[in-house]
Amino acid sequence: MNKVVDKLPKNMLGSEQLKKELNACVWSELIEPDAFEETWHAIMKRYGLANNDWFSSMFASRRFWVPAFFRDFPMSSLIKTTSLSESQNNFFKRYSKSRANLMKFYMNYNHALETQRSNSAKLEYYDSTKVPILRTELEIEKHASTIYSGSDYNAIQEVIVYACFSLSCATLGVSTNREIEVYNVKDKDSNSWTVTYSIGDDTYFCGCKKFERLDLLCSHIFCVLKYKFVKLIPEKLRGGRWLKSQFVKLIHGGFCDDQEIHLVVDKKKIAFKNLYALFIETTQSIEGNIDQINAFAAIMEEGKKQLLGEGVILSD
Ligand SMILES: [Zn+2]
Left if phi > 0, otherwise alpha if psi is -120 to 50, otherwise beta: which for 183? Predict the structure, then answer.
């Protein structure tokens, strides 16, 4: 899409309207392939680009790059119009060179992994020390705050708030039988979506397929959960990759079978959290100093010997 400007005939370069229409058509994750094709052809016709070689070849290879064709694939954040995909690109660019030999690739690969692990440890530390601010009275939001990690909780919170307070998000119609419940949900752009709940296996499915694609719940399913007075996010809708790690989850509290959320105050866990915070804080502040790193490692080694004696094999 960055190349569009180079490929457009000169007399069309100034057409902001064309760029806007093209972007809206290409970057919509919410339309099916045939709707994409229809809109694309209409744009090409309207702007006299139907015989343009470059646009024709891009259309011919649409299956490989247009998000509408990836609606059923779990894509995490690889295809997204937001800065998330840019940061993914950035990450790969930083750690790869086109002419690197195998050795260099291997070293860069290790470096990239180490950086990811270190970032993950930092985020986990922030997550363990931050208490999220709730914006609704709903139990389901409280529950979300105990299971999702930092920025992903914010994303889910936006969806919950939208589903709860937006007048345009409404559950319009319900039809049920013994096996499935079908809900008709309208969103802010007046699109209507069908959310299906299979009673037998306790699963929800929404036509927008956001959950299948990103592992994140959409506002349409939340509308239905609210409508059904569901208090906890159903297990199958939690999505693995955005959850707090087991360690952080324990600190923020648990919930019991009676569908009420209780904050668990556990001295052992708090002490462990403080120890972990101390470790992360210390390692972060000595990061750039090899002498201090060696000294800290020696202190820890010594401490380990004192606590556990020599030759003790750690187990969990
Ligand atoms: Zn949806």
Answer: beta
Ligand 1 geometric centre to CA of 184 (Å): 11
Q: Identify residues whose C-beta is under 5 A from ligand 1, the ion.
A: 206, 208, 218, 220
187 Cβ neighbours under 8 A, 6+ residues apart: 168, 169, 193, 219, 220
- Tell how far the Cα of 193 is from the centroid of ligand 1, in angstroms: 7
Output the pTM of the full model.
0.63
Residue 79: its pLDDT value, please?
A: 52
A 10 A CB-CB count for 16 gives 7
Q: Ramachandran region of residue 169, left (φ > 0), alpha (ψ -120 to 50) or beta? A: beta
Quote the CA–CA distance of 236 and 213 in Å, as a whole number: 14
Cα(37) to centroid(ligand 1), Å: 22
Paired residues of 183 in beta bridges: 174, 195
Q: Mean pLDDT in runs of 10 for the chain (316 residues)? A: 82 82 86 92 93 93 88 66 58 78 86 80 77 85 86 86 72 78 83 89 90 85 88 84 65 46 59 77 85 94 86 53
Which of 162, 160, 137, 157 shows the shortest CA–CA distance to 145? 157
Centre of ligand 1 to C-alpha 147, Å, is 21
pLDDT of residue 176: 78
The pLDDT of residue 100: 80
Q: What are phi and psi of 176, to 5 degrees?
A: -130, 150
Residue with tokens 């002419």: 99
**213 C-alpha to center of ligand 1: Å?**
11
Q: How many angstroms does the Cα of residue 2 sit away from the middle of ligand 1?
A: 29
The pLDDT value given to residue 188 = 74
Q: Is 172 helix (H, G, I), strand (E, B) or coil?
A: strand
> How far apart are alpha carbons 155 and 287 in whole angstroms?
31
Q: How remote is the CA of residue 249 from the centroid of ligand 1, in Å?
A: 27
